[in-house]
Amino acid sequence: MAQWFNDGAASQWVHVVRRGQIWHVRVGDTEHTAELLRWSPPHLTLRTSHGRVITCCVSTRAKRTEVTHQATTYRLAHTHRGAHDGAACASNGEILAPLPGRIIALLVETGARVQRGQPVCVIEAMKMQNEILAPSDGTVQFIAVNLSATVEGGTLLMKIG
Questions:
Q1: Nearest 5°: phi and psi at 107?
Q2: Whole-number Cα distances in Å, 26 to 1, 40, 62, 103
Q3: Which listed site, 10, 44, 45, 90, has its alpha carbon 20 to 30 Å from 159?
Q4: In whole angstroms, what is the distance from residue 130 CA to residue 99 CA?
Q5: Got the DSSP string for 101-116?
Q6: What does the pLDDT read at residue 103?
Q7: What whole-number distance in Å separates Cα of residue 161 and Cα of residue 15?
């Protein structure tokens, strides 16, 4: 999963999960699915789930990516690799494991106040440590996993309300 922060005029989180030729993109609370039709740098052509074909110009410099579509440029800054937030969260505040792995750290306790973007646990997958971030401000209502537990993608980790 790649995660960016759109630091343009309307700042918002952008989450991208690529599975083969299919891309799942979430911008704020809106989810999109698109099929990769062609990648010929710097041009990216996708077909949306509604059948619309779009072509974007993509340029990357250091940790910043710019995507231009229909004369609008979106400036995206990569967050640190292995950080997962919102995409692993159900709409009711449940935080779900974004990938299978082993819980190697629980960074909060039940009743703790958390802020959006705060690390709440760490999942190790394929020798990579993946921080799971709080998707919103709130209080940890319960933690559904134990330290060292092995989890599948989609497993309920905790709930923030």
A1: -95, 0
A2: 11, 23, 23, 25
A3: 10
A4: 9
A5: EEEEEE---TT-EE-T
A6: 94
A7: 22
CA atoms 62, 68, 74, 78: torsion sign: negative
pTM of the complete model:
0.49
The structure tokens listed for 117 are: 């973007």
Q: Which residues contact 101 (CB under 8 A, 6 or more apart)?
A: 123, 124, 125, 126, 130, 150, 151
**Six token digits for residue 157:** 């980790």
Strands of 150-151's sheet in order across = 83-84, 128-133, 119-125, 101-106, 150-151
Instruction: State the DSSP string of 12-30.
Output: EEEEEEEETTEEEEEETTE
Rg over alpha carbons for the chain, rounded to the nearest Å, is: 17
Q: What is the pLDDT of residues 101-127, one digit of tens each?
A: 899 999 999 999 999 888 899 888 877
CB 126 within 8 A of CB 61: no
Parallel, antiparallel or unpaired: strands 64-69 and 113-114: unpaired
The structure tokens listed for 112 are 């703790």
Which structure tokens are listed for 155?
């497993």
Q: Phi-psi region for residue 89, left (φ > 0), alpha (ψ -120 to 50) or beta?
A: beta
